[in-house]
Amino acid sequence: MTAKIRWGVLGNATVARKCVIPAIQKSGNGRVHALATQRPANAALVAAENQIERIYDCYEALLEDPAVDAVYIPLPNHLHRPWTLKALFAGKHVLCEKPIACTAREAHEMAAAAGTGHLLLMEAFMYRFHPRSREIKRLVSAGRIGKPCLVRSAFCFHMPEETLASGDNVRLKTDTGGGALLDVGCYSVSVARWMMGAEPTQVQAQAIYHNTGVDVHVVGTLQFPGGGLATMEASFVSALQQTFTVVGTAGAIDLPHDAFIPWKKNAEYILRGQDQETGCKHVVPGADEYQLMVEHFSDAVLGNSKLNFLFEDSIANMQVLDALAQAALTGNTVKL
To answer: What count of other Cβ atoms lies within 10 Å of the Cβ of residue 257?
Structure first.
């Protein structure tokens, strides 16, 4: 294998076009070799702008390309499992968009396939690679705010009214793995588990459902060992909320509404002492979290490092998401 891994991308999704393909092309250890899409004409400009050598009109053809070392999958949620399995069976390492699957059972199957093939599989939770996220995790782990006892997190946005009315968007369909909990609630569950450094023991949730059957407005609570609690909010029908707060026994850390996607601008957070109302603003220099993510994955594929975001974490996240979905539907507390 060369010093740069050769990527294949399955699908011309917005996140691929705007974020991940440019990130791979800017990376120091990878390049996009091929893009597969069912509408090649629509991908011509993306290929030209990013100097992508090959465009395939079906995903299978890309997986058969011996020049492809790793595959990035930005397909709708219900396609994550089948195409990850096909890519792994074709001998490709896989970086798959969040949520990694639609259920924890699917995630277990994907992990088993990666293990059998001795291949790397990672969920594309790019926020875990931003320097601000890592700095906050270091502060929490070092006891800077005392023992973490509460994480509040929200990732909400308002879909266009015409989209909500039509119900045609994949995020609004049950058979495509739609719903706010899976689509954006996965971030809140992930950050709560990460900052708490533990797995919840039980969850509760309430949800408002679209006439298509998917949740569009969700609030959940997570209980952790030792008295820790977390709240999560996910919505397709509210004004923008994209933030999290970590509260400890001796202080708190607050983020503005760019907590998961700060783009490349300087990223801020507020560190408050136990009795402070305002606290002190800290600024972390801007960074491309997508580039940091793909470079980390490429380094692991090249054997230069080991993954520091393991698939076991993704399985655990899916287990909590499954439990929250069940809690919202039944009105019951669900134990994990």
So the answer is: 15
- Distance of alpha carbon 128 from alpha carbon 143, whole angstroms: 19
Residues of the chain scoring pLDDT < 50: none
pTM above 0.85, yes or no: yes
Q: Is 37 helix (H, G, I), strand (E, B) or coil?
A: coil
Residue 2 is predicted with a pLDDT of 59
d(CA 118, CA 63): 17
Contact 225, 197 (CB under 8 A): no
Q: Where are the beta strands (DSSP E) in the chain?
A: 5-10, 30-36, 54-56, 70-73, 93-96, 121-123, 148-158, 202-209, 215-223, 229-235, 237-248, 251-254, 267-273, 280-284, 334-335
Phi, psi of 254 (to 5 degrees): -115, 140
Are 153 and 197 a contacting pair, CB within 8 Å? no
Rounded to the nearest 5°, which phi and psi values hold at 278?
Answer: -105, -45
CATH number at 127-292+317-335: 3.30.360.10
For CA atoms 329, 333, 334, 336, give the dihedral sign: positive
CATH architecture of 5-124: 3-Layer(aba) Sandwich (3.40)
Domain limits of the chain? 5-124, 127-292+317-335
Question: Exposed/middle/buried for 131, CB within 10 Å: 0-12, 13-18, 19+?
Answer: middle
